[in-house]
Amino acid sequence: MPNKIWGVDSAASVTSELYTCTVQNFGKPSYWGRYLTTVENVSDGLTKEEVNLLHENGVKILPIYNAYTRATGYRNGRVATANAIFHARRIGIPEGTFIFANTEKSFDIDEGWIRGWVDAMYPSGYRPGIYGSPDTDTFNQAYCTAVANDEQVSQQAVIWSEEPTPGVTKKNNAPTFNPLEPNCTSNVWAWQYGENADACPIDTNLMDSRLFQALW
Predict the structure, then answer these.
(1) What is the DSSP string of 60-115?
(2) E-only strand ranges, the chain
(3) In the chain, at which end, N or C, are there fewer CB atoms within 10 A of the end residue's CB?
(4) pTM over 0.85
(5) Residue 88 belongs to what domain range?
(6) What is the CATH number of the domain that holds 122?
(7) pLDDT tens for residues 129-155?
């Protein structure tokens, strides 16, 4: 299997300095994952200045929503989606773009939340993505139970896997695309294979072209 499309993500705002650091030390990313909102001590929210900087350099944006600390309950999943859509529209992200729910390993997550996220995202015009850890029983059970309860989850949602993590590399040394997948039907179209680079505060990723085409 050939390598996929290379890009990065960061919790920090993309300044000219961070962009230049990334290009000089790792290579030019085709996309940049950024958070839609500011969460204190976690992430800087995406700004229109960043959008302009990235787009002027031919870099697509992978939107991430993370303004919650647990992913449980169907209604809470729908609320998270509504909030993510609000911020996506505020920034000017067009419909048809994937928005990724950030579910860290430390988060509680259940199948109801996943169904709520997908159910509310689907009719909005945006597309549902989930960043998660298929190596954990918590995520696997939640996702696969959601799929069993509603096949729309596996049909509509795309997973961005954070495992395994062989480590940060330069663009031209990226590993072959080989993310962990849930133990059920899924679309794992992205892989964060390297975390917390030393030279610049970024993570490194590979992505399927089908997802890349549906970024902003």
Answers:
(1) EEEEEE---S-B--HHHHHHHHHHHHHHHHHHTPPTT-EEEEE--TTS-B-HHHHH
(2) 5-9, 31-35, 60-65, 98-102, 127-132, 158-161, 188-194, 203-207
(3) N
(4) yes
(5) 5-212
(6) 3.20.20.80
(7) 999 998 888 999 999 999 999 999 999
